[in-house]
Design brief:
The complex is a heterodimer of chains A (346) and B (130).
Chain A lengths: L1 H15 L7 E9 L2 E9 L1 H21 L7 H7 L6 E2 L2 H16 L9 H7 L11 H8 L7 E4 L4 E4 L12 H15 L4 E6 L2 E5 L8 E6 L3 H4 L3 E7 L3 E6 L4 E3 L8 E3 L14 E8 L2 H14 L1 H11 L2 E7 L3 E4 L7 E3 L5 E2 L2
Parallel strand pairs in A: 15-17
Antiparallel strand pairs in A: 1-2, 2-6, 3-5, 4-5, 6-7, 7-10, 8-9, 9-16, 10-13, 11-12, 13-14, 14-15
Chain B lengths: L4 H25 L5 E7 L2 E7 L7 E8 L2 E8 L2 E7 L5 H4 L9 E4 L4 E7 L9 E3 L1
Antiparallel strand pairs in B: 1-2, 1-7, 3-4, 4-5, 6-7
The chains are: A alpha+beta (346), B alpha+beta (130).
C-alpha cells in the first residue's frame, strides 16, 4: 500500500511539472524607439499575451513621444512653439512633467528643451560637422526648461518661444520600461529580463532562483577587447547607462580625436565633458533611472553622486576618463569586476 | 525475495527519474564554447558563422530586402560593416565588433550583427546595460 502511495506521489510530481500552468520562456526582439528591444519572459500563456500587450504599449509610447515621428505629441508641441498650447495624451503629459521636475532638481543640467542643439549638431547625419560658437550661442538662447508651460487641467503643453523644441530621448525609453514592467507584473509574470536598447530591467530572479547577472558596458571595448567592465548581480531593478560610446563621431577631420557624442550639456551647448566616459544608474523606477543617468553624465562624478545620494532612491557607477570606476556604497557588494583595464576606486 | 508488481513499477519510475536528471544535468552543463557571428534580418537569423573556422578575412553580402544590402568584412577576430546602401550609414560608422555581447545595428535594414558564445569567465552574463 505504501508503495502505491509512493508511486502516486511520483506520478503527481511528474504530472504537475507539465500541467497547463507550465512556466515557459517567451523571447522576442523588435525594432522600435530607434533601437532594439529584447524581451525574455517566463510565465504561462497569460505571460505571452502580456508580452504582446507590452510591445504594443511601447509602440504607442514611441508614436506619442518621438521627436521625429510626424503627428507625435512631441512633434505637435514643437511645431506650435511660440504659437499655442497643444493638448497631449496623459502619458506624454506625465513624462514631460517628470522631466521638468528633473530640470529643477539638476538646476538645468537635465533639460528636455535641448532639441534645437540636437538638430544643430545632428551627430548621426551623413555629413556631421562641428557647429561654430555663434551658431551654438544662437540655439542655446532657446534652451530653457522653465519656458515649458504645463496646464494640468486641460493637459496642454506650451513652449513659450518660437524655435524652441523638446526631445524626450533621455526619459521616454525609461518610461516605456516602467510601463512594460507594470503590464508584465499585472499579468503575474514573476521572472523576466528586458533590454530596451541598453536599458535593462529585471523582474524577480531567474527561473532557477538565482540572481540576474547584468554586465556593465565597457565604454572602450575596442581598446580593451572586453564587452563589459563588470557584472552586477541583481533582482527586481532597472539598470540604465549613459556614455560617450553610444552615438558619436570622432573628430577625424581636425585630427584632434575628440569624441562628439549625443549627450549635450545645456550650459555649453556642446557634448557634455564632465570627466566621465560612462555612468550607470540602478533604481526601481526606470523613468527615474533614465533621467538620473543623463543627469549624472552631464554633472560628472562628484556633483552627480552628491545629487543621487541626496535623493536616496538610486545607486550609481561612474567610469572616469582616467579609467577609474567609482560606485555608491549600496552597489559595492553586488559588483564583480571583469578585466583589468579599469581601476576600482573608492 | 519476491517482487510485487508495485515494487517493479516503483523501481522503473525511479530509474526513469534518474535517467531524466542525468539528461537534465547534461543539458544544463552545455556550454557555448564556439564564438559565433550571428546576423539577423528582421528578427530572423540569416547567418551563423563559427568565427574560429574563418581562415582568411572575407567579405559577405547580406541582402536586407527591398534592394537593401550590407557588406560585412569578417575575420577570425571580429567583424565590421564596410559598405551598405542604407540612408543613415550608422552601421558603416559603427566600431568593429570583437567580443561576445557586442552588436552592430542597421536600423533602416532591420539588421543586427552580434557575436555570441566564447565561454570566457565573467562572460557568464544575462544581458549588458549600455
Amino acid at each position: 500500500m505504501k508503495k502505491i502511495i509512493g508511486l502516486c506521489l511520483i506520478l503527481a510530481v511528474i504530472l504537475m511539472s507539465c500541467g497547463p500552468g507550465k512556466i515557459e520562456e517567451y523571447s522576442k526582439s523588435i525594432f522600435a524607439m530607434d533601437t532594439i528591444l529584447e524581451f525574455r519572459i517566463y510565465g504561462n500563456k497569460n505571460a505571452k499575451k502580456a508580452l504582446d500587450k507590452a510591445i504594443e504599449r511601447v509602440k504607442e509610447i514611441e508614436d506619442r513621444m518621438s521627436a521625429t515621428k510626424e503627428d507625435s505629441d512631441v512633434a505637435k508641441i514643437n511645431e506650435n512653439a511660440g504659437k499655442q498650447p497643444v493638448k497631449v495624451h496623459d502619458d506624454t503629459f506625465y513624462v514631460i512633467k517628470k522631466a521638468l521636475e528633473y530640470g529643477k532638481l539638476t538646476e538645468g543640467d537635465f533639460d528636455i528643451t535641448i532639441r534645437p542643439l540636437v538638430e544643430l549638431w545632428d551627430i548621426l547625419s551623413d555629413k556631421p560637422r562641428i557647429p561654430d560658437a555663434e551658431e551654438i550661442e544662437e540655439k542655446l538662447a532657446l534652451v530653457d526648461y522653465r519656458k515649458v508651460k504645463l496646464d494640468e487641467e486641460n493637459k496642454t503643453v506650451f513652449l513659450e518661444e518660437e524655435g524652441m523644441g523638446i526631445d524626450l530621448g533621455a526619459i521616454a525609453k525609461g518610461y516605456a520600461g516602467d510601463e512594460v514592467t507594470r503590464i508584465l507584473k499585472e499579468a503575474g509574470v514573476k521572472s523576466a529580463l528586458i533590454n530596451l536598447g541598453g536599458n535593462v530591467i529585471v523582474i524577480g530572479r531567474k527561473p532557477d532562483g538565482s540572481l540576474w547577472r547584468i554586465g556593465i558596458q565597457d565604454p572602450r571595448s575596442e581598446e580593451t577587447g572586453k564587452s563589459h567592465i563588470g557584472v552586477l548581480e541583481v533582482e527586481d531593478v532597472t539598470i540604465v547607462s549613459s556614455g560617450d560610446y553610444e552615438r558619436y563621431m570622432v573628430d577625424i577631420y581636425e585630427k584632434t580625436g575628440v569624441r562628439y557624442h549625443h549627450i549635450f550639456d545645456p550650459k555649453t551647448g556642446s557634448p557634455a565633458r564632465s570627466g566621465l566616459m560612462a555612468c550607470t544608474i540602478v533604481a526601481s523606477s526606470s523613468t527615474d533611472a533614465d533621467a538620473l543617468s543623463t543627469s549624472l553624465f552631464i554633472k560628472g562624478k562628484d556633483e552627480g553622486f552628491k545629487l543621487i545620494e541626496e535623493l536616496g532612491q538610486a545607486e550609481a557607477i561612474a567610469i572616469t576618463e582616467d579609467k577609474e570606476i567609482y560606485m555608491t556604497e549600496g552597489l559595492e557588494n553586488m559588483f564583480e569586476q571583469y578585466g583589468e583595464s579599469y581601476k576600482l576606486s573608492h | 525475495m519476491k517482487l510485487k508488481i508495485g515494487d517493479i513499477l516503483v523501481y522503473i519510475f525511479i530509474l526513469i527519474l534518474i535517467g531524466f536528471s542525468i539528461l537534465g544535468l547534461q543539458w544544463l552543463g552545455e556550454t557555448t564554447e564556439d564564438r559565433r557571428l550571428i546576423v539577423e534580418v528582421d528578427g530572423e537569423i540569416v547567418k551563423s558563422i563559427d568565427l574560429d573556422e574563418i581562415e582568411l578575412p572575407q567579405d559577405i553580402r547580406i541582402e536586407a530586402g527591398d534592394g537593401g544590402y550590407n557588406i560585412l568584412r569578417i575575420a577570425r577576430d571580429g567583424a565590421k560593416v564596410i559598405e551598405a546602401n542604407c540612408p543613415d550609414q550608422v552601421c558603416v560608422r559603427s566600431a568593429r565588433i570583437v567580443v561576445p555581447g557586442q552588436t552592430i545595428v542597421c536600423l533602416p535594414h532591420r539588421l543586427i550583427i552580434r557575436i555570441e558564445g566564447g565561454g570566457e569567465d565573467g562572460g557568464n552574463i544575462d544581458s549588458i546595460a549600455s
